[in-house]
């Protein structure tokens, strides 16, 4: 690849490769800790867990009965929301907060594309049961697949709800984003991938702004059972708040969760021209693929290490300039071991502090990379490192400063945010402080 000529000295609106610098001018959050940035961030710094027993569906006979659940107004009213509906409604809440914070029009006129990271969409049991009831009404015979398919014929609303691109189309229409919306799913790296799409569009000069969203609503029976069959989930059901234990010796799996985050990205030039608040910069993106296994990383850690190094280099930094690492930190024995390997390979003996917000909100899957990017920006803004809670017995195989149990003040200018997905889909982001006036 041909290297872009460096910008002239003093060109503050361009990065070391001559590309437009990418500013974050608005952020929005929906997490099990609360609706909105302020509520979620305050709870995170307080070390409060959002993991609870599942109340949304029966859990008898399941190995795992805990999760991070977001309580929406519709939940309080007793409405049953399938995952596609939940993803869309959380994405709307996060996006509206981010757009308002950026000082842009709330609906109909967003000045750039939509980059949406979301989970795969499928027909769920509430859909199937509704179709079965319709089939039974038409015949006394127990409904089989042909009868269910016949009952679904002509149901446009069901088809559009379960169409992968449908959510993006509706969000694009609601917020008036430009061009065709981009929807992507890269497993647990999805939220970071959505941000990377927006960053690269701005760097190429194809857009002055981008609305980047990561959203996840898969706390539902089938998804829970599938992850359980992979032996990936914690079964510490009697102590939900203590179940997620990244980097701790007693860790035994992640806790499923849901939520959404939105970031308004703009070229620094466009943001400065309109006097927008600049919360920070997305300075670098790095991605590497690893086709070793569906759920496990290659033991050599090559893709994880490569993604971290690529993000730091893309930001024009050396590893020593990273002040803090927002960990992928799922709490599975495999992930935490491999992330430690990556940290030692990239930073040597002088690793910066690293902590996992998944210890408090669980693993938000498709939303995780975006949520963690927002938390990284807040760590820079407030000079506070969120803790890794439930760190009771250190693992001697993980010689890292994991900011155990209590938040910590620190001078933070550059954060590396890691997202390592199933199937070897790895994306890392470098977030930086806003330029000094």
From TrEMBL:
* Keywords assigned: Transferase
**Pfam families assigned:** ketoacyl-synt, Ketoacyl-synt_C
The annotated pathway is: Lipid metabolism; fatty acid biosynthesis
* Domain called Ketosynthase family 3 (KS3): residue spans: 19-433
An example of a Gene Ontology cellular component annotation for this protein is: cytosol
Record GO biological process = fatty acid biosynthetic process
User: Sorted alphabetically, which InterPro entries does this protein's record hold?
Assistant: Beta-ketoacyl_synthase (IPR000794), Ketoacyl_synth_C (IPR014031), Ketoacyl_synth_N (IPR014030), PKS_Beta-ketoAc_synthase_dom (IPR020841), Thiolase-like (IPR016039)
Q: What is this protein called?
A: Beta-ketoacyl-ACP synthase
């Amino acid at each position: 690849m041909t290297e872009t000529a460096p910008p002239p000295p003093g060109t503050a609106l361009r990065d070391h490769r001559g590309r437009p610098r990418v500013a974050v001018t608005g952020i929005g959050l929906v997490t099990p800790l609360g609706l909105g940035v302020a509520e979620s961030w305050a709870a995170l710094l307080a070390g409060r867990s959002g993991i609870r027993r599942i109340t949304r569906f029966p859990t008898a006979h399941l190995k795992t009965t805990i999760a991070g659940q977001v309580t929406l107004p519709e939940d309080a009213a007793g409405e049953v929301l399938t995952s596609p509906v939940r993803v869309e409604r959380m994405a709307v809440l996060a996006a509206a907060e981010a757009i308002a914070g950026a000082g842009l029009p709330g609906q109909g006129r967003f000045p750039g594309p939509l980059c949406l990271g979301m989970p795969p969409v499928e027909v769920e049991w509430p859909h199937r049961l509704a179709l079965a009831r319709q089939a039974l009404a038409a015949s006394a015979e127990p409904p089989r697949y042909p009868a269910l398919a016949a009952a679904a014929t002509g149901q446009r609303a069901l088809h559009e709800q379960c169409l992968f691109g449908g959510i993006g189309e509706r969000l694009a229409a609601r917020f008036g984003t430009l061009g065709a919306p981009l929807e992507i799913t890269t497993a647990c790296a999805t939220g970071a991938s959505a941000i990377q799409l927006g960053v690269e569009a701005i760097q190429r000069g194809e857009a002055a702004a981008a609305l980047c969203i990561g959203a996840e609503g898969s706390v539902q029976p089938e998804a829970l059972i599938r992850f359980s069959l992979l032996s990936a989930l914690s079964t510490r059901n009697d102590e939900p708040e203590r179940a997620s234990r990244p980097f701790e010796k007693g860790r035994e799996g992640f806790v499923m969760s849901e939520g959404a985050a939105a970031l308004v990205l703009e070229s620094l030039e466009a943001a400065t021209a309109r006097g927008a608040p600049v919360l920070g910069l997305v300075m670098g993106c790095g991605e590497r693929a690893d086709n070793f296994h569906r759920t496990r990383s290659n033991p050599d850690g090559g893709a994880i290490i490569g993604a971290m190094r690529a993000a730091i280099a893309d930001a024009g930094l050396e590893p020593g300039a990273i002040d803090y690492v927002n960990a992928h930190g799922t709490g599975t024995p495999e992930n935490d071991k491999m992330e430690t390997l990556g940290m030692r390979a990239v930073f040597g003996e002088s690793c910066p502090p690293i902590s996992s917000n998944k210890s408090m909100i669980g693993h938000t899957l498709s939303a995780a990379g975006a949520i963690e990017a927002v938390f990284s920006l807040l760590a820079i803004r407030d000079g506070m490192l969120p803790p890794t809670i439930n760190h009771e017995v250190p693992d001697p195989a993980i010689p890292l400063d994991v900011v155990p149990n209590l938040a910590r003040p620190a001078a933070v200018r550059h954060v590396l945010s890691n997202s390592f997905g199933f199937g070897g889909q790895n994306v890392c982001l470098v977030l930086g402080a806003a330029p000094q006036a």
